[in-house]
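The instructor's notes for this session suggest beginning with a concrete chain rather than abstract definitions. Hand out the sequence below and ask the class to guess, before any prediction is shown, which regions might be ordered.
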Amino acid sequence: MTRIMSWNVNGIRAIVKKDFFRQIDALQADVLCLQETKAQVDQVEDALKDLDGYHVFANHAERKGYSGVAILSKEQPLSVNTDMGIEEHDNEGRVLCAEFPDFYVVSVYTPNAGNGLARLDYRKQWDIDFRNYITQLERKKPVVVCGDLNVAHQPIDIARPKSNYNKTAGYTQVEIDGMSAHLENGLVDTFRAQHPDEVKYSWWSYRGGARQKNIGWRLDYVLVSESLYPQIKEAFILNEYEGSDHCPVGVLIE
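After discussion, reveal the predicted structure:
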C-alpha cells in the first residue's frame, strides 16, 4: 500500500512552529505534497531540517513569501521536475512533479481568481495549460495530482453555494468548467468518486468561527488517471488536523 497525501499548510515556517512534525508522523504518508509553503527552496529545507525519514523537494515563486509547493517522500523519486515550462505560470512556483516507478505525483497550487475575480481570465488559461501538462505526463505513465485546486466543483462541495456562485473566487462557472474539463480529460476526483453524497470540506475561512460551524469549501483534491483509479483503495479528508486553514486530504493506493 502507498499512502499519498496533500496539505495546503498556509506557510511552512508558521506551521512548523505548531505541532507539524508530530502530525506528519501521525499521517504516515509515503508521499506528502504541500502547497502554499510561502518560502524559498532553502527556507523550506531549513524549516524541515529536523524531519526524519523524508526526502524533501520544493519549488518557489520569484515573489518571496508567496505561493510555493513541496513534496516529501520516503522513497527517493526517479526524478523531480519543477514547473510546466510556461514562463507566465512558472514564476509563481505552483507545480512540482516527482516520478516514481508506477506513476507521477504532482503537487499543485492552482492560482486563485483573486479579489473581484481580477485573475479569472488568467485562471482560465492556467487550467487549460495545466491540463495539457498532465496529458503530456500521462503519455508515459499514470498521474496522481495532489493539491489545492482552488475550486469547489459542485454545490455539495461548498456550504453556501447560492450566495457565492459567480461572485466569489473558487465558485464561478469558469472555474467549475475548468475542473470539469480535467475530469473529462481522464482524471478521477477520488474523494467524490468514493463518497458521492458525503458533505466534507477541506478549507474554512479564519473569520466568523467558520471552522467550528463547518461553513467550508472542498478545495483540496487528489485526482488520479483513470487507469490508476481501480487501485485506489481509499480516499479521505482529515478534518481533525489543524494548524492551517486547510486540512489534509489523501488516498491509499494498492
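Then share the key points. Residues 2-253 form a domain with the Deoxyribonuclease I; Chain A fold (CATH 3.60.10.10). Residues 120 and 175 are 8 Å apart (CA to CA).
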